[in-house]
Amino acid sequence: MVAAVPYCQHCGAQHADDASFCPTCGSWVGSVGGLAAPQAATRYASFWQRVAAYVIDQLVVGIPYNVISALVLHSTPNVTSTTDASGKVSLHWTGDWALFGVLFVASIVASWLYQALMQSSSRQATVGKMVLGLIITDEAGNRISFARATGRYFAGILNVLTLGIGYLMVIWTPHKQALHDRIAGTVVVRKTS
To answer: Is the distance from CB of 154 to CB of 112 less than 8 angstroms?
Structure first.
């Protein structure tokens, strides 16, 4: 039976199990022994990759929404104001606000289901992320559940409430996580093969 060859804890090179020093870098390995084979470094998605995926996803959801809205909503709801001679301001609501409200709620539901179902599927990505070769996992690298994907989607509201700073966190956090990723315990990574 052949023993596994250990790896240097300093440079990752293989060395004999009974070696005291690494043959590649010369570091002393006798007191620690060998470490397991080094794992490939996780490649987290950059800020700009995530922006590009977001734009693609907005097109995937937004184009059908706008087409349906144009077919169903014949006049855009509008609010105007007038001031009479005494200085009293009156608001005038025109258009079909009830239908607009229904379409608005439907767009939120459609966006949520698109994001949560795609992210929790075996593909682990929305169309935008698939185009860029990205997937969403939990922090241990596992596929996320529909419930976690739902929490991630609605936690995204906090990115807006922080005036976009939640999105910018991707730039400086160690695992390139936005605020909603940190809350949901998810990461966006490059797909490995």
So the answer is: yes
Question: Which residue shows structure tokens 């169903």?
Answer: 72
Model pLDDT for residues 103-152, shown as the tens digit of each residue? 999 999 999 999 999 999 999 999 999 999 999 999 988 999 999 999 99
User: Helix 47-72 and helix 97-119: axis angle, to 10°?
Assistant: 140
pTM across the whole model:
0.71
Query: Contact 112/104 with Cβ under 8 angstroms?
Result: no
Written as six digits, the tokens of 16 are: 């004999």
Q: Residue 188: in which H helix or E strand, if any?
A: strand 186-190
C-alpha 8/C-alpha 5 separation (Å) is 10
Q: DSSP E strands: which ranges in 78-175?
A: 78-83, 89-94, 134-138
Strand partners of residue 187 = 137
Q: H or E stretch including 149?
A: helix 146-155
The b-or-e profile of 119-146 (16+ CB within 10 A means b, else e) is bbeeebbbbbbbebbbbbbeeeeebbee
Contact residues for 35 (Cβ-Cβ < 8 A; gap 6+) = 6, 7, 8, 9
DSSP string for residues in 164-180: THHHHHHHHSTT---HH
Tens digit of each residue's pLDDT (9 = 90 or more) over 44-58: 999 999 999 999 999
